[in-house]
Amino acid sequence: MTNDLSIRNVVKRFGDFTAVDDVTFDVPTGSFFSILGPSGCGKTTLLRMVAGFEEPTSGAIEIRGKDMLGVPPNRRPVNLVFQHLALFPMMNVEENIAFGLKRRGVASAEIRKLTEAILERVDLPGYGAKQINQLSGGQKQRVAIARALVLNPSVLLLDEPLGALDLKLREQMKVELKKLQAKVGTTFIYITHDQSEALVMSDRVAVMNNGRFEQMGTPQELYGKPETPFVAQFVGDTNKWTGTVTQSSANDVSLTTDEGYAFRSKAYTTFAQGSRVDLFLRPEAMRIEPRDKDGLNLFEVTVKAILFDGANSRLLTVTKEEHELIVTLPQNHKFDYIKPGDRITVGWHPDSGTCFEAQE
Length: 360
Hints:
Elements: E1 3-14, E2 17-28, E3 32-36, H1 43-51, E4 58-63, E5 66-67, E6 78-81, H2 93-103, H3 108-121, H4 137-149, E7 155-159, H5 167-184, E8 187-192, H6 195-201, E9 204-209, E10 212-217, H7 219-224, H8 229-234, E11 239-248, E12 252-257, E13 262-266, E14 276-281, E15 287-288, E16 297-307, E17 314-318, E18 324-328, E19 343-348, E20 353-357
Helix pairs in contact: 2-3, 2-4, 3-4
């Protein structure tokens, strides 16, 4: 497998502040790779170093095997799509897309051919003469991407390009971007703080926090097998308990939570008896009024509210100790009778939980 981008031990410091701290990763050719993290974690700084707008304090950046250190932005085989797109309002669609080609001295006939071809690829055939203010938000996104792709970059960098869109359009564009990347085959490196965007679109995702990669893997791996407490909480929704270990092996752990519940959970390491742990559990792992109770961690909760959201509807519940928990509602209408104030039994299988050393 060949890589379009290779980062080795990259560090970026601004004075005494370390924005990117010893980051190493590869991006395979033709893949959709996302860097996911909260604001200020260093993801945009990392992207700017790939683009050439910042130089690393130390480390190496290679694009298709060529060292990029010291290479100016206009000489790198990458293009960048910004959150606010930076389209020229005084130019029509074709002129926007052709801008970079004209700067490169491409002949007019070739420019016309290339712009028409790229408009076809982004599903905007015949839009060349339209003004930017005649386009919808999604169409503007595709024009911005077309303007970058027409220059035939090895890597397309996207810095939170959906952040300025309303929710419904953002959901539509997640699907459109994934389809477009698969269609054109260009390597996409996508920066976002939105875990849904990263999970839906990406082949692989790196979760970044405080300048470092906490975990890198497929969306399924990050969601189902988080390797750190930060990933467990940041990627997807989760319920959390803190407790004390009563027994531990290499595969599971028994603990008593601070509220007094005795639970068993999956574990990836052995904990010392008496050590403090944080237990994480996805809302969809909670079973409502389970018939087969064998081996489950069982307890009662009170329903505070029904959080209706179509297929993603949930219950907001609370234990007698006022510990709030989110429980996913199955979409078989079996529990339509549940209403706020009801006491219900919930249970979860030990394999559904994940434990880490407590972050106290």
